[in-house]
Fold:
Amino acid sequence: MGRKIVAGVFHWLPKQLRGCSTTPLFMFCTSRDCNSSSEFSRWSNGGGYFHRSAVIDPSVKIDIGAVVHSNAKLDQDVHVGSGAVIGASVSIGKSTKIGYNAVLGNCSLGMSCTLHSGVCIGQDGFGFFVDGDRCVKKKPQTLQVKIGNDVEVGANTCIDRGRIGDYVTMGGRAAVRDHVSITSNVRLAANSGVTKDLPFPGDYAGFPAIPVREWRRQILSSRRLDDK
Structure:
């Protein structure tokens, strides 16, 4: 009796789709299984998966292991790296590059942006309040992150819901709290923390982020105190 040979392929599952710890890192998918889903299909240019309600330009590349969810919109020449998750209704402008394992939700990105590996954008911020019964409640998070054109976001940066203008550069591990707006032509040093609006263009550093010249003066003053 001959053996039955089943054609198929292994697909890497990003962490967001694994569920419990017993879920395998890789999923074996036969051609019949891959085509039977009523919601997701495999993107021919790269091998990632997309929801059938998403609007995706034919020039877009979605690498294997990446997932694009419902009603997302990806413009021309967008590249989504392996393991990235593009959330529902996210909009990505022309020629924007999304790095490995980035997670985007509740946001829109302009043209020619670069998001490096591990970036997380559009999640709920750290917002709580005390109600009339003196109970701590989570503050509703309703804003969207709006990122302009030609913005570069460093690896592992986290941006909660707010607004970012055009030509903004953020160093690695920079953080932006919720309900914050950053004007155009701002550069944030690595490990900066933005806790309030930045209405003026320029270079910022520190936690909380302040103009870089002021931050350098603070560092110099602290060193002088240490030397005494």
Remarks:
- The longest strand covers residues 8-12.
- The chain has one domain: 39-227.
- Helices lie at 15-18, 31-36, 212-227.
- The first helix runs from residue 15 to 18.
